[in-house]
Amino acid sequence: TLANNNMKTCPSCKAKLSVSELSESLRALECSSCRGHWLPSENYTRWIDRKGGIEPMLPSEEGHDVPDGQQETARVCPDCSRIMIKARVGRDLSYSVDRCFQCHGIWLDADEWDSLQSRNLHDDIYMMYTSIWKQGEADKNSV
User: Which of 44, 59, 95, 109 has a C-alpha 20 to 30 A away from that of 66?
Assistant: First the structure.
């Protein structure tokens, strides 16, 4: 939740997080230093519900990637202080997103939301943690 955000710090660089809007009607917390975004689970699921579901994925050449400059160390959730789990986005994108399995919030490094949105993957973030998504990537890479 975005309430009491004055105490929340960036899981990447530890700077202060402040309220921002990632997309129309989708509020998140943005890091003032590294420009990453914390997306609380309830905000994301409510936004997906309001949109009326997910949109079809665009072909990979129509989107853009971001450099995979993420740290290899685990990140700590700004909401519940649990260790977050990384999931590789795949779909010809080279980076991973972080998700807390306790409160289900999502951490996106700078430009990752724009990259996901450019391919209509921004409404599939939770799917990236499923075996179906991972199997699809494995099948694609073995061809």
Answer: 44
